[in-house]
Model the fold of this input.
Amino acid sequence: MGESIKVLLVDDHQVVRRGLRTFLEVQDDIEVVGEAADGAEGVARAEELRPDVVLMDVKMPGLDGIDALRRLRELDNPARVLIVTSFTEQRTVVPALRAGAAGYVYKDVDPDALAGAIRSVHAGHILLQPEVAGALLSQEEAGTGQGRGGSLTEREREVLGLIADGRSNREIARALVLSEKTVKTHVSNILMKLDLADRTQAALWAVRHGVTG
Done:
């Protein structure tokens, strides 16, 4: 077995953190390395502990989850952020995804599904429900990346299609018989050419423009 997935819990309710910790600590491949009670503390702890995955609440006093996400992106913190929320409204979830979240789950999620979600985002996948993906697509500015698909090489289009399928860099490398370093270079080029911020936007662009793996 490889190294455990290091997880940081960020939620202003102690009972929620305790419940998450109690469940996650029985998982052989997941280690809870710390907790935080608000967004500002969450950012500080993420910088200190360098977790692989952050479970982040949205509504918190002071710095909320979305602003904390933006702060982590500004700091180039590599942690994958999984939003854990009781809010199902798209007006809450969509901004979190735009801020850089790798996906989201609801607080009443089945424990095994939560563990699966953590493993999934750690592997590089993006967790999007169909209705939220549709909302993101409809809210994208019409000109974002428009007409720039022709600047992609054939290999970059192949990589983009696999990103849209939710594949991690490792899985893309295996599918295309490339090194992970080469795949990372292709991903960076795709984001630059299409003027996109992250893999989530790249996946949505690919869906809109019919680029599939």
Observations:
- Residues 141-145 have pLDDT under 50 and may be disordered.
- The chain has ten helices and five strands.
- Residues 180-194 form the longest helix (15 residues).
- The beta strands are 5-10, 30-36, 53-56, 80-85, 103-106.
